[in-house]
Amino acid sequence: MLLYDTRYRSATIQVIALIFFMLLAAWLINNTAQNLAELGKPIDFGFFSEPASYDINQRLLDYNSRDTHLRAALIGLLNTLVVAVLGCATATILGVIIGVLRLSHNWLIGRLMTVYVEMFRNVPVLLWIVFIMAILIETLPAPRAFRGEDPAASMLLGDTVALTNRGVYIPEPLFSRSLGDVHMLGGSGLRFDISLDLILLLVVLGGGLWVSRRIKRRADRIQESTGVRPTTWYLRLGVIVVPLAIVLTVLGFHLGYPALKGFNFQGGTHLRNSLIALWLALSLYTAAFVAEIVRSGIMAISKGQTEAASALGLRSNRIMSLVILPQALRVIVPPLISQYLNLTKNSSLAIAVGYMDITGTLGGITMNQTGRELECVLLLMLVYLVISLSISTVMNWYNESVKLKER
Amino acid sequence: MKKSVFFGALTVAGLAAGAAAAGTMDDVKARGKLNCGVTTGLVGFAAPDANGEWNGFDVAVCRAVAAAVLGDQNAVEFVPTTGKTRFTALASGEIDMLARNTTWTFSRDVDLKFEFVGVNYYDGQGFMVPKSLGVSSAKELDGATVCIQTGTTTELNLADFFRSNNISYEPVPIETNAEAQQQYLAGACDVYTTDASGLAATRATFETPGDHVILPEIISKEPLGPLVRHGDNEWGDIARWSLNALIAAEEYGVTSANIEELAKGTNNPEINRLLGTEGTLGEMLGLDKEWAKRAIAANGNYGEIFAKNIGENTPVGLARGLNAQWTNGGLLYAPPFR
Amino acid sequence: MSDVSFVRTEMLPEKAPPVTSAGAIGWMRENLFSGWFNTALTLVSLVVILYVLSAIVPWVLSPTWSGTSLNECREMLAAAGHNGGHGGACWGVIRERWIQLLFGFYPSELYWRPIAAFILLAVALAPILFSDKVPGKLIWFSAAYPFIFPWLLWGGTVWGPIAAAAGFGIGFVVYRILSDAVSSLAGMIGGLVAALIWWLALSGLAVSALESILPIGIEAVESRKFGGFMLSITIGIVAIACSLPLGVVLALGRQSDLLIVKYLCVGFIEFIRGVPLITLLFVASTLLNIFMPPGTNFDIILRVLIMVTLFASAYMAEVIRGGLAALPKGQYEGADSLGLDYWQSQRLIIMPQALKISIPGIVSTFIGVFKDTTLVSIIGLLDPLGLSNAIRADANWNGIVWELYGFIALLFFVFCFGMSRYSMYLERKLQTGHR
């Protein structure tokens, strides 16, 4: 028998497993097909080209209710990515600060940070999202409060930023001699505009950075051969700042400030409080986990490293940046990746505060209105899977690069 | 048929593996319970009390059907559904009927393959604003921030209304009524829009209801009614005529107080046929003679249910308006029991 | 010449340390005010703490325990001199609804059953978690517990769980007979097939036969009656318990040399870990019935249990894989050198150690799953968060926000904090240093 011959056993088992898997898949697909036929709803993605008929407030691209469901899903996807990127960045910064402060010698600070970490780790993130949304709504002033002779609330930072319970209005960059936009894929559901101003700025900034790197390399070479490092910081700063400033002046850069007109503030960039609540909640929640990761990463570095570094005569911040952190990073990065993944997946709870991410558009209103559950849910899972896999690919690549190179 | 099936070590008594394709009425009778989909909570329409008893206007429809079919108004399992899960729950047979303030639309009826058995509440989408805003018409709302409850037809109506009037707005989609109310009261939105009945119910619970006005524009037709699956006409008939019995009972003056007396026989043949003392209407439905009597006796006729749950003497405080009998200038018009 | 220089013969008594470095003041100098930076930090955090407390404490201390509606609470607060709508909490809602938040719609005369189930859970876990403090015989109770737990919660005839347990017995007996007569592999296959036949075909008949002869049972409770914290805990426990064996299989599969098996396991694990739980719950609420044969219909709680179990099993597999990886290679080689085959070495040497190392990870997976059960409110189940919406739909309590969220958050905190402390204790205890 094939199973008893060690030469064929593994192949036999694998073939059996494969057959079982295929049978299972065939059974599921067969059931699905039968059920769909019975319901009279064959798989059909045609609804994507129908008008979505609903509006989305927070969006990166232009969109109106006559656009297709496909475009609504795209807007949602971008919103998911926005909150994931913002959340990961904030969570990392907060987490590192809190993790370091937890190790502080200050008793009160140490305890306070412990309370913070335990409080956020042990209450469900959905509850935090709802909670922070409620706090934003109840404690910040409504735009109405900014009105009148003696307003109950006023704008911050010299009338440039307005904190309201509808969100935060911040100044937006404007160009009076703009180069205009390039419309890509015009008319289709995936259309988007590319601002030539932005491209120009990025090119100039990139060029500046490149020149500045060259200057640094040269300084390094001089230091290696002569032992004396020439002072180059003003030069390096200059090659970045001066061309940028020139381009900005040529383009007529100025800020557009928000101002109260009618029911709401007009002008400026409006970050809706659904975005802010989700962003805050996800970053505060994830920061508690990141703090623990950072703390254990730092504690994993043996004390001898610090002592050896100070024996070499390094100052304490140099010890942190040159000795401790590069080593701690190797311990920190792998669990950090999974926290980033968790944050991205948790962003799907946006639905609880009405932030229109991909779950709110494709898996929410679109699914409700079209009744195409199978197509919507499967596509939604596929989108998240692609996002997760890309994050872990990128982060694993980074992890490889900081990993201890054993020789 | 109910049999236990084991999934590994997990025994679950609530697992019923049977053929859902058989008549819904037979299933319900065999089960001894009616599975009725309701909202997860909407003031006046459906909400559980501290003992877990469900009460409300939609709940009363479920109870009437249960009383008609099973003879016991408490033989109902209330299945809370969200805007997202309600249609799949009905389509998959998890619930036998859905009484969850659901708007009767063409695509739901035809494309999603459901059958609306009537209308138990004629509603329309309205706007509520704080009085201090000084707005008297929805057309003055250019640039306003509008709170919408999602998962309904509301957001579509709203988009169409603002688009056709060529004015801009800022939508704030919100999952539940309770949260929408909180945002509106805190001034996070200028306007709250949902069905007019919901607006009235919400306003009634405010600390100072007088500070808020409901604008005169009703921007949509929202006939709300119970629905069942397409294709099971016997069951659809039972649900339809149970609802009609409640409406007709009010028209003929049959109430939960006098129903026992009227059931002994009256001079009005229509009442006699309704209450089963004359004719064989019950048998035609596959039920017994007294089906409608039980449905009405459960919570009273349509008027009594309305008054008890959402009427003017309740916190919700809705006027009958369109939901008056046709004889009083409303739209309620039960077909004849003949 | 006599030397008259003074030589002290006894020690000087120790002097008390200076006031500034001893006692409370010294401690404060050391820990709170060492250096300007620390002093600033301390002052800032003191201000923050005072600010938060001054906002919360008066709100919490509000004399509204007996209120029966929000309006009544408002009147009571006005009478007590609290100002405005946010002057105080309305605790009446908690007094009226706390039982509902704990048990959902479970029949009130049967509350003892979930309580007993959760107390017995502690008893059943004791031999595993505190193996040094309880008698070893208790492990038999732990083995029986997976059948007692669902029976207590869902009720029904006692023969159901007994028949389910009998499946394992039958499988084991067949395994012993066949492995003695033919070979262990045939025994395993035979045992599995026999158990499956019993569960899928025969047990239903046996249960109804026994039921008609000897009807012993307790009142059945439908899973729709489950709600509140009981629902969260039930989902958490069932998901973790069922995902443990699945996780072991997946982890072994992922480590296996068999390419196809390995990639199937990796694919499953990465797929589940790559999508948010909420999409899996959407599958439970909208799609699972479509995937099953036409006409199958099982209730939403069971569907949620299945999806959450699949979700947890992927995470569990990773935890156990970590445990397997942490075992020193010598253990595998030692098992091989004893001449044990793959299953014997897994059962006798590898798994007991790997599972023991993984317990803290399993506990934190459980905490994660338990917290994630709040997501079921999004698909309309009445877990604590879902119930809070239902309660706010009651005309009496419309407009309540913080009291309910605060109460739910507090309960979650107490539960999760206790679990995480326990897991830390366990981690210390398990660090016996044999590496």
UniProtKB/TrEMBL annotation, chain B:
Task: State the superkingdom.
Answer: Bacteria
Lineage from the top down? Bacteria, Pseudomonadati, Pseudomonadota, Alphaproteobacteria, Rhodobacterales
Q: Which Pfam families match?
A: SBP_bac_3
Q: To which protein family does this belong?
A: Belongs to the bacterial solute-binding protein 3 family.
Which organism does this record belong to?
Answer: Antarcticimicrobium luteum
PANTHER family, A to Z: AMINO ACID ABC TRANSPORTER PERMEASE, AMINO-ACID ABC TRANSPORTER-BINDING PROTEIN YHDW-RELATED
UniProt keyword terms in alphabetical order: Signal, Transport
Q: Does the keyword NADP apply?
A: no
Domain Solute-binding protein family 3/N-terminal, which positions? 33-262
* Identification of the protein by name: Amino acid ABC transporter substrate-binding protein
InterPro entries with a match to the protein in the record: Bact_solute-bind_prot3, Solute-binding_3/MltF_N
Q: Which residues form the signal peptide?
A: 1-21
GO biological process per UniProt? amino acid transport
From TrEMBL, chain C:
Membrane: present as a keyword of the record? yes
Q: Where in the cell is it found?
A: Cell inner membrane; Cell membrane
For this UniProt entry, what is the primary localization, expressed as one broad class? membrane
* One annotated GO biological process: amino acid transport
Gene3D superfamilies the UniProt entry points to: MetI-like (1.10.3720.10)
Q: How does it sit in the membrane?
A: Multi-pass membrane protein
Q: Does the keyword Cell membrane apply?
A: yes
Pfam families for the chain: BPD_transp_1 (PF00528)
Domain named ABC transmembrane type-1 is located at 229-423
Molecular function per GO: transmembrane transporter activity
InterPro entries per UniProt: AA_ABC_transptr_permease_3TM (IPR010065), ArtM/GltK/GlnP/TcyL/YhdX-like (IPR043429), MetI-like (IPR000515), MetI-like_sf (IPR035906)
**PANTHER family, per this entry?**
INNER MEMBRANE AMINO-ACID ABC TRANSPORTER PERMEASE PROTEIN YHDY (PTHR30614:SF41), MEMBRANE COMPONENT OF AMINO ACID ABC TRANSPORTER (PTHR30614)
Q: Which family does it belong to?
A: Belongs to the binding-protein-dependent transport system permease family. HisMQ subfamily.
This chain belongs to the protein called Amino acid ABC transporter permease
Organism this protein belongs to:
Antarcticimicrobium luteum
Native organism taxonomy: Bacteria, Pseudomonadati, Pseudomonadota, Alphaproteobacteria, Rhodobacterales
